[in-house]
Structure formats: C-alpha cells, structure tokens
Amino acid sequence: MTPDPSTLLGYSTVIFLLLGVHFILSEFSGRRWSRMAWYAAPFFLGAVSGLFSTVQSILPGQWGLRMSSLFMIMAYGAAWQAMRIILGYRTRVLPVLLACIVFFILSALSGRTGLFHVLSTAFRLAALAMLHLLGIWNLRNAEQITTPARRNLQRLLTLYAGFYLLLVALVLWLPAPLGAAPATIWAVATYNFLTVVEVTLFALGMIAIPWEQLAFRQKELILQDPPFGRRQPPRLSGMARK
C-alpha cells in the first residue's frame, strides 16, 4: 500500500491543531494571554503550513508550496520564542521576520527548477538549522536550573540542527521537501514523520520544563528551611522574664 502524501500531511495538521488547543486551554485559566499566544503559535502556524500542503486548491501551483514553507519557518521561529519565554528571556521576533522576508523573495523568484529554486530551498533549510542552533544557545546559557527535560530538549535540537545542516549540504541531490530535486513520496513521508516527532517531543519539553523548574525551586526552599526540631525557641522580653 503506497502512502498518500495528502493523507499524511492531513494527519500531521490535525496533530498540530490539537497541540495548539492544548496550550491555549492550559494557559487560559491563568489569563496569561501573551504566554498563551506564544505557546500555541508554533502549532497553529504549523497547522496552517500543513493546510497549504494538504488542500492545494487554496493556492494552486507553486504558491501553495511556497506559503507552506513560509509558515513552517514562522512556526519554528515561534517555537524559538516560546522556548525563550520558558527560559526567562524576552522574545526576539526581528530575526524570524528577516528570515521570512528573504525566503519569500527567493521563493517568489524561483520556479520548479533553476538557481533560485535551489537557493530558496537551501535558505529554508539553513534558516531552520539556524533557529535550532539559536535554541541550543539559549538552553545552554539560561540562568535557570538545568533540568532533565531541558537537557533532553537540547539534545533533540542538536540532533535536528545537524539533520538540517546535512540537508543543506545535499540540497542539490535530495528530493523535495528534503532538497531541491523533484519531490518523491518517500521524501514527503520522511520529512513529515520527522517533523511530527520533533514537534511532539518539543511540546512535551514545553510542558515538562516549567514543572521541573517549579519542583527544583520547591526542593531548594525545603532544604533552606531548617528542621523544626532545631529551631531556637523565641526569646522572652524583659517584662516576660520577670
């Protein structure tokens, strides 16, 4: 049975939507609107990217694929912002916007083949690799407690950063969406599977890191509080001693 690329992309789109809804509901009760928007944005933007790839009648021809790739860069950029918020940093939207603008220009000039097609594909893959590297930098240098989930997320981003850098080196030979050669079913299925795996593990990291940080802070407070049996009795005032 041959896998249908549209069906695979449709499944991943639904997964992204469900993850986005989860983060909206988890932050809604606390009325932290800005955090809720940033936490949900990567998954909703990824769902929009999948929608352009799945329902090609929205923008027929090359524009549907261009918008799908553009929204995927935006999704990874929003994931970087969400991770910065978790680690206590401020958001940095400008680098993501610049990457999206450059990619849009290159992709608008490109066709199905040719120099600009290769350049736009290589830039897309390089932008994704760079966003992963920026995330690794933030994870390494954050002042907050280094938790197991944080270390695992760093390993995940390192693995995928190396993967995207490898795709940049092989962009001329690999089929789309892994490279600039004509698309094949196995390439679409592989890219979709790896993306879903990363997104799911990243979402688990987003959930686990704040809880682990809270647990470590509570443990530190318990250790700093002296045992009740060793506390000194309160001193009596002069009037009470008399």
Mind explaining what this structure looks like?
The structure is a single chain. The chain contains eight helices and no strands. The chain is an all-alpha fold and about 240 residues long. The N and C termini lie far apart (about 95 Å). Residues about 235-240 have low confidence and may be disordered.
List the helices and strands and how they pair.
Elements: H1 5-28, H2 33-54, H3 62-86, H4 94-109, H5 115-141, H6 148-169, H7 185-224, H8 238-241
Helix pairs in contact: 1-2, 1-7, 2-3, 3-4, 3-5, 4-5, 5-6, 6-7
Please write the string of helix (H) and strand (E) elements. Answer: HHHHHHHH
Q: List segments where confidence is low: pLDDT < 50 over at least 5 consecutive residues.
A: 236-242
Main sheet summary: none
CA gyration radius, whole angstroms: 23 Å
Beta-strand residue percentage:
under 5%
Helical content stands at over 70%
- How many strands? 0
The general outline is globular
- Give the N-terminus to C-terminus distance in angstroms: 94 Å
What value does the average pLDDT take?
88
Total helical elements: 8
Secondary-structure class: mainly alpha
Quick structural summary:
With 242 residues, the protein is mainly α. It is 74% helix and 0% strand.
Features:
mainly alpha, 242 residues, 8 helices, globular
